[in-house]
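Repro case for the chain-ordering regression, as requested:
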Amino acid sequence: MHVERTDFVGVPVTDRERAMGFYGHTLGLKRNSLAHPEWPEFETGNVTILLNTPEQTGVPFSPSNTAIALRVADVAEAMRELEAKGVTFLFPEPYDSGVCHMAFFKDPDGNSLILHHRHAPYPDGSTP
Amino acid sequence: MGSPIPSSRWRGRLAEGIGAQRVDYIRVPVTDIEQAKHFYGELLGLERNPNSPGDDWVEYEVGNVTLVVMTPHTHDYEFTPLPPATIALRVSDVAAAKAKLESAGLEVGEMWDSGVCHGAGVSDPAGNRILLHHRYAPYPDGSTP
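-- result from build under test --
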């Protein structure tokens, strides 16, 4: 079998309107206007984030720790922008893994998200 | 690896908010990395990124995004499986993919039809429910995702 691509990443939410405000306005992701209105899709550039509710999936709500890592040019700057909008982060400053900067935060339902910027190339000199 | 394949529909329109450019990776928490490598690398046939570091952090490239198969217990947090249908993998034929995985001994859920797409769920060895997915209907404007 051949897997062609990842069509979407599902994110469970309990309050669709609140989540749409967070992903659409706070994070500023573009909503796919062609998607079903009750299955809101947000585009990140390469992959689709699909918001779903427990009523739709039939699965009791539990927050996802898949930790979608959003690439930004400057993690510290993006942190400041989100903090100004009331988002809180796990650590007060970006974490430096040695190859990337990261900042850990959650959406209003507790789903894990990461601001991410890899600053070092791979060992072979290429960049992801 | 991880070459961006942005949808032209959204190109150049992502610079609002925090200026998110793309999703760099998505974590897939597992409990046994060897079992997971067999499932994702051999059974699903995903391409491993040769530059991915460490034996507890293995990156697979899925066309448009990187899936990181990793063990939470070596990254300071506890394993919990992903909610069902967190990750939807596009295949050309869900029934054929289901049959192929079943012939390898996996249990795959019944294929459903939403009216615009087919889907069938399969669990990885850690219990993450992965969705095999194929949208067969175009969008209302005739385009396809």
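Ordering looks correct now. The mean pLDDT of chain A is 94.
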